[in-house]
Design goal:
By secondary structure, the protein is of the alpha/beta class. The chain contains five helices and seven strands. Keywords: Membrane, Transmembrane, Transmembrane helix.
Length: 291
């Protein structure tokens, strides 16, 4: 049986052989360098386990490939006759497949129809339920109204027929006139310097009097030296009715004569006020008064 040194001999270099020869000498003492070289070379020696694992791992891929090839060949050998018969005969083998596919499609269609009908029924049921709820709400509202106390209607009052009041057609002068507001024309104002010789147009001017001085021309002789003038003017004719226009005379009072001078005038009754068509006074100092 070989010794450990002989078993390692094929792998060890000549340095190890010299080392073994030197170790036979009793007086030999190994130095540190020689020990390190031996340890390093022993670590590089291949082990038995590593060689066995390398052998087994190299066979595994080959076994897997062979197994796959055998399976593919077996499947091809079994399926080839059926494929050849299917493509040759065609109609006989295709009929069962077609019948089977048709039955499956019919079953799917029937299932879809049933589901659609079920959805329709559910929709109708929902609509009916909503309708019933609305009817119930209306009935409840009607019951609540009936339970509430009813108000008694107020007694009807007999209305007396009243005559229709047709508004009078007002003259055109009631909507087209000149407004004069002068407090010195009042019959209570004393003064004698005023004159109407240039107050109105020579062709006549429709005038409405307003303000604190008065709104109408007096229908009586007011006296002299009032209305801010010497000879006072007053209306010496009949006043027209509502909505009518009348022609009259405008007199001027001076000293003892109530109508020392006169001029023509027109008066329009506008229901709530009067308008006058006035002309310039014949001389000075003559002026129209207001009340």
């Amino acid at each position: 049986m070989p010794t450990s040194t002989q078993a390692v001999a094929p792998y060890a270099p000549r340095v190890y052989q010299g080392l073994a020869e030197e170790t036979n000498d009793v007086s030999y003492t190994p130095n540190q360098t020689t020990v390190r070289e031996v340890q390093w070379n022993m670590a590089d020696l291949p082990s038995a386990s590593s060689s066995e694992s390398a052998t087994t791992t190299s066979w595994k891929p080959l076994i897997i490939v062979l197994t796959a090839v055998i399976l593919v060949a077996a499947i091809a050998a079994v399926a080839t006759p059926f494929l050849i018969a299917y493509f040759k005969t065609g109609s006989e083998l295709k009929k069962p497949i077609i019948i089977f596919s048709n039955s499956i499609s019919k079953a799917i269609v029937q299932l879809m129809q049933k589901s659609f009908k079920g959805q329709q029924k559910r929709a109708h049921a929902c609509i009916l339920l909503q309708h019933q709820q609305q009817v119930q709400q209306l009935l409840l509202q009607q019951q609540r109204r009936q339970q509430q106390p009813q108000r008694r209607p107020l007694p009807l009052r007999r209305l007396r027929p009243q005559p229709l009041r047709v508004p009078a057609n007002l003259p055109a002068a009631c909507s087209s006139y000149t407004t004069i507001s002068d407090s010195t024309r009042s019959v209570s104002y004393s003064g004698s310097s005023g004159c109407d010789s240039s107050s109105f147009s020579s062709s006549g001017m429709w005038v409405r009097f307003t303000g604190s001085g008065g709104t109408t021309i007096p229908t009586y002789a007011p006296g002299t030296s009032v209305c801010g003038t010497s000879a006072t003017g007053w209306y010496a004719s009949t006043v027209p009715s509502s909505g009518a226009t009348a022609s009259g005379t405008l007199c001027y009072q001076w000293t003892s004569s109530t109508c020392q001078w006169s001029s023509s005038v027109q008066v329009a009754n506008c229901n709530t006020y009067y308008v006058y068509l006035l002309y310039p006074s014949p001389t000075c100092n003559l002026r129209v008064c207001t009340v």
